[in-house]
Write a structure and sequence with these properties.
Layout: E1 10-15, H1 18-31, H2 39-42, E2 49-54, E3 58-63, E4 66-72, E5 78-79, H3 81-86, E6 92-96, H4 101-105, E7 110-111, H5 112-116, E8 131-136, E9 144-148, H6 152-155, E10 157-158, E11 164-165, E12 172-179, H7 183-189
Parallel strand pairs: 6-8
Antiparallel strand pairs: 1-2, 2-3, 3-4, 4-5, 7-12, 8-9, 9-12, 10-11
Length: 190
């Protein structure tokens, strides 16, 4: 998504009205209940909220010249990795094994075997089409943010203690939306 993103991809920036700002805040609060106590610090009511429209139907929510959230078309808002590193418990997490790290950091989508192998970890409560943080085996911070293509139960399903049956366990499990060192990361840290 942000592999070749730069500030040149921005087509319009608009400071939004108070009613639109409330709607965005409410949408973010519903999607990420863990952010509720600090939402006023992240999105201050008095600071101007700017929605930046970019190519490919991408919107960035910017406060004080810092992109904090993004969404595609009218989908759910997802935090940038910079914000996720500050507040690591706001999203559900999936973990990839060590072998998948270099591919994820190159922008590849997360495949089911990378999540279901011994180094990977799944949260059974994650449903299909849910924004998730992608963690790496042995690492503290998230390396990507993605959007699940199928539920965790479809990726990996335990029948009982002795037998583990994978219901699908192939194909793309998570679409990689934003990863360390991509265009959005460089804009945030540039």
């Amino acid at each position: 998504m942000f592999k070749k993103f730069s500030s040149e991809d921005v087509s319009a920036q608009n400071q939004v009205k108070a009613s639109v700002q409330r709607k965005i805040r409410q949408s973010i609060a519903e999607e990420y209940p863990g952010l509720e106590p600090v939402l006023d610090d992240i999105l201050p009511k008095k600071s101007p909220l700017i929605v930046t429209k970019c190519q490919n139907h991408l919107n960035l929510v910017v406060v004080n010249n810092v992109p904090l959230f993004f969404n595609i078309r009218d989908g759910p808002y997802m935090p940038t990795l910079r914000l996720l590193h500050q507040y690591p418990n706001i999203m559900k997490k999936l973990q990839v094994d060590r072998g998948a790290i270099r591919f994820v950091l190159a922008g590849a989508n997360i495949m089911c075997p990378g999540l279901t192998s011994p180094g990977g970890a799944l949260d059974d409560e994650v449903g299909a089409e849910t924004p998730v943080a992608i963690m790496a085996e042995g690492k503290q911070h998230a390396l990507a943010i993605g959007f699940t293509k199928m539920s965790a139960k479809d990726m990996f399903h335990a029948v009982d203690i002795y037998e583990v049956r994978r219901t699908i366990n192939k194909g793309i499990g998570v679409d990689n939306m934003h990863y360390l060192n991509d265009g959005l990361w460089k804009v945030c840290h540039g």
